[in-house]
Amino acid sequence: MDRTPVVFVQGAWLNSLSWESWVDRFASRGFRAVVPGWPGQADASPDAHTSPETLAGIGLDALTDHYAAIARSFDVPPVIVGHSVGGLIAQHLVGLDVARAAVAIAPAPVNDVPSAAGPPRLWAPEQYGGTDDLVALSAEQFHRLFANTEEPAEAHRLFERYVLPAPRRLLTDLGCAGSARSPRAAADIANAGRGPLLLVSGQEDRLVPDSVTRAVYKEYGDSTAVTDLKQFADRGHSLVVDRGWRDVADHVLGWLDAHGVHARATEV
């Protein structure tokens, strides 16, 4: 099979089903769209929504190693499309040269780029519910933090279909609540031979503000490898699942084509 694989990596608080529209869109363009899910999580299945306990204890090390192994399992290097912490992992993998290209959408910050500062501390797990191992969002918190650009009814629909608790260990690894960020929250910004990278931000994002994504973009400023930034006005952290998802997906498809990444791996 010579179709170019595209591996989708969701972020914290979203299940693998959150990529369902993207999978259909990319598959219709000829790509081999794959949503492996997190370790222990069902592949693009509603089961991932009903079994969050399988995620307890997952940290950034396990998550990164999981997707690195998946990326290396293909006959040709895949494209990695990640949202939030998935966007951090996408940058890490393209920097390791195991991905042909990467798209990081509202990515958790890499290296020494600070997270959003000031009250409220949106990433602080103690603000939320859940168990010792899992951090849950309420429907109201999801609307306020994730889907703040959406009407309440739409935010509730997204919450019911896509949201599940996040591993507390992972949030700690990301530097939440003042914890020390894991060394794995990093990308090789100096790798001039890597594949192209697209960073995407929502300018109304409250969880990973546009300013954070712009700061990450500046980190790549001295690299001769292709690094692009696309900012979407009036979009929040839910931009991969809300009513405007197609605008984001189609921009990614156009960007891949512009950089010679086609649906057929042998296409030139």
What is the strand and helix layout of this fold?
Layout: E1 5-9, H1 20-28, E2 32-34, H2 47-50, H3 60-72, E3 79-83, H4 85-95, E4 101-105, E5 129-130, E6 134-136, H5 139-145, H6 152-162, E7 166-167, H7 168-173, E8 197-202, H8 210-219, E9 227-232, H9 245-258
Parallel strand pairs: 1-2, 1-3, 3-4, 4-8, 8-9
Antiparallel strand pairs: 5-6, 6-7
Helix pairs in contact: 1-9, 5-6
Provide a brief overview of the structure.
The protein is of the alpha/beta class. The chain has 9 helices and 9 strands. Helix 1 (20-28) packs parallel to helix 9 (245-258) and helix 5 crosses helix 6 (152-162).
What does this structure look like?
The chain has 268 residues and is an alpha/beta fold. It contains 9 helices and 9 strands. The strands form 2 sheets. The chain has a 6-stranded parallel β-sheet with strand order 2-1-3-4-8-9, with helices on both faces. Strands 5-6-7 form a 3-stranded antiparallel β-sheet. The longest helix has 14 residues, at 245-258. The radius of gyration is 17 Å and the shape is globular. It starts with a strand and ends in a 10-residue tail after the last helix.
